[in-house]
# Entry
Amino acid sequence: MGKTYDASDIVVLEGIEPVRRRPAMYIGGTDKTGLHHLVWEILDNAIDEVINGYATHIIVELDKSREGLRITDNGRGIPVDKHPKHKKSALEIIMTTLHAGGKFDTGSYIHSGGLHGVGASVVNALSRHLEVQVKRDGKEWEQTYQAGVPQGPVKALGNARGTGTSVYFRPDPKIFGKTIQFDPAVLQDTLDAKAYLHKGLKLTFKDGTTGETHLFHHEQGIQEYLRKLV
# Structure
């Protein structure tokens, strides 16, 4: 005789728990491709700041261990003030809540390739450690997370010049197993392609495995790429 099937059998996954339970639904898998998808999610958010005229430069830094990566832009910086409805810092909401962000209407972004709050919260959920620093309104702010869970409130680090967002993360081996090392060649190829797609975009890659720094910048974009082919 079969088991009963009633309301008590229905499982409701809240917050970012579904991402850790079924990561393939969000990043396609937990192989090398899925691992690097984490990078593209954060990178696309930074690129959106550039193509909307709020940033000029993005820096991607790979750890010597290849297990950690930082992406920094000089855009507006993710808002850190309290959300009027949810009474939490907007930064914490964006980093810990699926389908939260400033790109679901047309007020904050005219063009958008990434959706922080969808992408960023997924990356956070699948990282054993993630930290965000934001420069905004004359101060620098920070929040750290483990497996997507805040390790404390958003805190002010002190006064700061300029604006921007910096995200550092280390993928969780509980999710990705032994596939937790980023491939410098894959990173460089994609950064180069992004620079062609968005003419004028400046992407700097700092490879901690070699100590080398590479700049990807194609002033003419796609036209320059086509000339390269012929």
In short: Residues 109-117 have pLDDT under 50 and may be disordered.
